[in-house]
Design a protein that fits this description.
262 residues; Rossmann fold; seven-stranded mixed sheet; 9 helices; 7 strands; 17% strand; globular
């Protein structure tokens, strides 16, 4: 089984668990996803069968319960340190790789995968996309989100192409999935990242940059939260995301129901 990225150590997960629940970045990206999921899958009375690929410390795993009805939301991650926190929420979580999902064919309605794909080299991404298609039921959806403007430490290494929302749809199609939504979010963070890069600040990894916003930084949190709220509202009204400018890319793809001759 592949190993979790080396940058993610115990101290990282302790900090992430402390801020993931309430940090305006984390809460804001979930808010936008919360506007998208019902549009793509509706709200079936029995709830959705959901897999959180790369569930981390479990905040998103718990948030996804609202779409699952009485069904458990299943979480999986490569990092044992993250799963120690995720298990505290009571949802079933397992140690596993996105490249080899330990589930039967067609088990899930929704695969949610945030901030994972950018850490996989190209061959591993291909295997992961095929696994996503395998465990989705016909009509199911995979929702991918990955930071793009801030990048990931692996992105500068050979074999780790940047997560590019313009090329990912073709990669998903090769795996048997049909893209239905492509765009960006976190426009304020994208603007800040471009300004920082232009000022000679270089790139910054979003996950490791998360800190509680206290004291004088609290108003910044309110502004970030407001911009995500507006992005979620804009999606509800327009049913699409901005094509460029955001710090995070989002791609949703559908497993098309096979055509059967009468």
């Amino acid at each position: 089984m592949p190993e979790a990225p080396a940058i993610f150590q115990a101290a990282y997960y302790r900090r992430l668990a402390a801020v993931e629940e309430r940090h305006p970045w984390s809460a804001g990206t979930r808010r936008v996803a919360g506007a998208i999921i019902p549009v793509l899958l509706g709200r079936p009375s029995g709830g959705l069968r959901i897999l959180d690929v790369g569930c981390g410390t479990g905040a998103t795993l718990r948030w996804l319960r609202r779409f699952a009805g009485r069904r458990p939301v299943v979480g999986m991650d490569l990092a044992r340190g993250a799963l120690r926190f995720a298990r505290r929420g009571g949802e079933p979580v397992i140690l596993a790789s996105a490249e080899a999902l330990p589930f039967r064919k067609g088990r899930f309605d929704l695969l949610y995968c945030a901030d994972v794909i950018q850490h996989l080299p190209a061959p591993a991404r291909t295997r992961a996309y095929r696994e996503f298609a395998r465990v989705l039921r016909p009509g199911g959806v995979v929702l991918l989100r990955a930071n793009r403007a801030t990048g990931a430490p692996e992105a500068a290494r050979p074999g780790y192409p940047a997560f590019d929302y313009r090329t990912v749809p073709a990669e998903l199609e090769e795996a048997g999935l049909t893209p239905v939504l492509v765009g960006t979010l976190a426009l304020l963070s994208g603007l800040a990242a471009r300004w920082r890069r232009g000022a000679g600040g270089g790139w910054q990894h979003q996950g490791l940059a998360l800190r509680p916003l206290t004291g004088l930084a609290r108003p910044l949190g309110w502004v970030i939260g407001l911009t995500f709220w507006l992005e979620a509202l804009a999606f509800r009204l327009r049913r699409r995301l901005p094509a460029r400018g955001g710090a995070s890319s989002l791609v949703a793809a559908l497993k098309v129901v096979p055509f059967e001759r009468a």
